[in-house]
Design goal:
It contains eleven helices and four strands, in the order ααβαβαααααβαβαα. It is an alpha/beta fold and about 260 residues long. The protein has a single domain, classed as Rossmann fold (3-Layer(aba) Sandwich). It has a four-stranded parallel beta sheet with strand order 1-2-3-4, with helices on both faces. Helix 2 crosses helix 3.
Length: about 260
């Protein structure tokens, strides 16, 4: 239930080391809201991201996901490992929860009301805790833009995301097998995520964790510090790759 506006305070900093590509999921912002449930699966989203990479002519890229987007980023990185140089995540309960745990939470979502459409669906949408109107720590400029974009949310698309994507979004079964470097931007004010932060480190000791004074939307709430951490992370990986490419292979050396 976010939009491209959430990244307003990050894009200029990221441009120092890469060319940012911001994605709005089906039914969000300016993206369409297709009616086919098959398009709302994890596999379908990963295929869409890969098609976007090919369309843009990018050989390798970083993926940076917030909340639900963190789960999609990890599943994409797992499916297309050769195309991902590194992954940055922010707080995401669904990523580190068991499917059963998340199913219990998801059962509280008013899917029937969302599917109805009309005023009842809009009311149900705005009543959900993740709606931006309930955010208390976002910078004013970001929240203003996100509130405007929230009017573009399609309730039926949100319902299909909840039904066909979120229940299987846990990355507990894949995170340990991902070979690329990863960073977690942890909003330390979100108390219920902190045990999951520790679990992530247990599962993946190589994970770089940056603890920042903020909550769920840490990339926007603590943008300056988040930008410094992410730009440094990307820059180190780019330089490492460049250095590796400069080293000649032994079989190509002459005596």
């Amino acid at each position: 239930m976010s939009s491209r506006a959430q990244w307003l305070l990050n894009l200029e900093a990221l441009k120092k080391v890469c060319s940012p590509v911001v994605v709005e999921l089906w039914g969000h912002g300016r993206s369409p809201a297709p009616k086919d449930p098959a398009l709302y699966t994890i596999e379908s989203f990963c295929a869409e991201f890969e098609a976007l990479r090919e369309q843009l002519g990018i050989e390798e890229w970083f993926v940076f996901g917030q909340s639900m987007g963190a789960g999609l980023a990890l599943h994409y990185a797992h499916a297309y490992q050769a195309r991902v140089m590194g992954v940055v995540l922010t707080n995401s309960g669904v990523v580190l929860s068991t499917p059963e745990t998340f199913a219990n939470r998801a059962s509280q979502v008013p899917l029937a009301s969302l599917k109805l459409g009309g005023p009842a669906a809009r009311f149900a949408l705005e009543s959900m805790p993740m709606h931006v109107k309930h955010a208390s720590r976002l910078p004013v400029a970001v929240k203003t833009e996100m509130l405007a974009d929230a009017d573009l949310l399609n309730p039926q698309a949100i319902a299909m995301l909840m039904q066909y994507c979120l229940p299987s979004l846990s990355a507990l079964g894949i995170i340990e097998r991902l070979p690329m470097p990863m960073m977690l931007l942890n909003g330390s004010f979100e108390s219920n995520f902190q045990p999951l932060r520790d679990l992530a480190l247990t599962l993946l000791p190589s994970l770089e964790v940056v603890d920042l004074p903020g909550g769920h939307a840490i990339n926007a709430e603590c943008a300056d510090a988040a930008n410094v951490a992410v730009v440094d992370f990307f820059d180190r990986l780019i330089k490492k790759k460049e250095q590796h490419q400069k080293v000649p292979k032994k079989q190509g050396l002459t005596p």
